[in-house]
Specification:
CATH architecture of the largest domain: Clam
Number of helices: 3
Order of helices and strands: HEEEEEEHEEEEEEEHEEEEE
Low-confidence stretches: 1-7, 9-40
Largest sheet: 11 strands, antiparallel
Number of domains: 2
Radius of gyration: 24 Å
CATH topology of the largest domain: outer membrane lipoprotein receptor (LolB), chain A
Strand content: 35-45%
Number of strands: 18
Length: about 325
């Protein structure tokens, strides 16, 4: 398990350098015609399907079950819950090699900061900005086939109820779409057609996640509740080192705390020279100053702390590394 934590740590270090944010707008069913349009212009029509858009439900609980039958069989189960402000993901994977299995994980995000823990991290808390890409950790049906492609092949089936909710049912059946063959899709949107209540997908093709070769994949996304969920905080996320008030984009995982700041390197050095002494740390050497980086080293008992300060035009990036 320690090997897995080190792998996750390396992944997050890469994320520090290439994190992205791409919030999605939620289009309506049809764009109203402007008064300035000429009578010969045709009003644009919004797509039927633009993604799960679960945020339109405000507070909800949903399950996502992904199963593959190939050279070996695996199952991926994700429960998503929202109280209208926080979103919680609970992940369980079965059937894959331990080196590929993240282990059970629970992540809670407020849209700015995410906290993750569980057996997959030895119950250590990983804290990081919510715009970090988690690669393939948390999946949904839109990762199998893009909403743009799905939208092009859907046809209206009818209206009714699904799971007790009013819905509009769309379906698609194709011999080949993208990397998939024998594709069958059924999507039920809420009555305003802004969010998916259910999404069923089956196809054959190459395993997209765990190298199980050619086989059959089936996915089932279901909204089971539309109501505020009780979400418990992730434990163990406290940071036992002083952090300046100017810190932003805070990251915490085993052995490392990282942040950015608009402060100068001199201000950060002065902060730690004062704050660490108060907490019983002793400076091991004088600050080692390079052209664009400064290293401070402190000790307390058997603990050793390196503070690496990298200087940029917008401020500093700081890594606190415990040994």
């Amino acid at each position: 398990m320690r090997k897995l934590i080190m792998s996750l740590t390396a992944t997050f270090l890469l994320m520090l350098a290439c994190s992205t944010s791409s919030p999605e707008g939620i289009p309506g069913r049809r764009d109203p015609q402007s008064n300035s349009q000429s009578q010969t212009e045709v009003p644009s029509i919004s797509p039927i399907y633009t993604g799960l858009n679960s945020g339109e439900l405000e507070a909800y609980m949903a399950t996502y079950d992904l199963n593959f039958t190939g050279s070996y069989d695996w199952a991926y189960d994700l429960i998503t819950r929202s109280d209208g402000e926080l979103i919680e993901y609970s992940l369980h994977i079965e059937g894959v090699d331990p080196s590929q299995n993240l282990g059970d994980l629970r992540l809670v995000t407020d849209g700015e900061t995410s906290r993750m823990s569980g057996p997959g991290t030895d119950n250590e808390c990983f804290l990081f900005p919510s715009d970090f890409e988690l690669i393939s950790a948390f999946q949904n049906p839109d990762d199998l086939l893009s909403p743009q492609i799905v939208n092009e092949i859907l046809t209206l089936f009818g209206e009714g109820t699904i799971g007790g909710f009013e819905s509009v049912h769309y379906t698609a059946e194709q011999s080949r779409v993208g990397i998939w063959q024998e594709v069958q899709i059924d999507i039920w949107l809420n009555h305003t057609e802004t969010a998916a209540l259910r999404y069923l997908f089956t196809a054959t093709g190459v395993d997209p996640l765990f190298d199980a070769g050619e086989g059959q994949i089936s996915a089932s996304f279901r909204v089971t509740e539309i109501s505020a969920q009780d979400i418990e905080p992730i434990p163990g996320c406290e940071i036992g080192l002083p952090i300046p008030e100017s810190a932003s984009r805070l990251v915490r995982f085993p052995g490392l705390v990282s942040f950015e700041s608009a402060a100068t390197a001199e201000e950060v050095i002065a902060f730690y020279q004062e704050a660490l002494v108060v907490e019983g740390w002793q400076e091991v050497t004088e600050p080692q100053i390079g052209e664009d980086a400064i290293l401070l080293t402190y000790s307390k008992g058997d603990e050793l702390l390196d503070i690496n300060i990298e200087i940029s035009s917008s401020g500093v990036s700081v890594d606190l590394i415990m040994h």
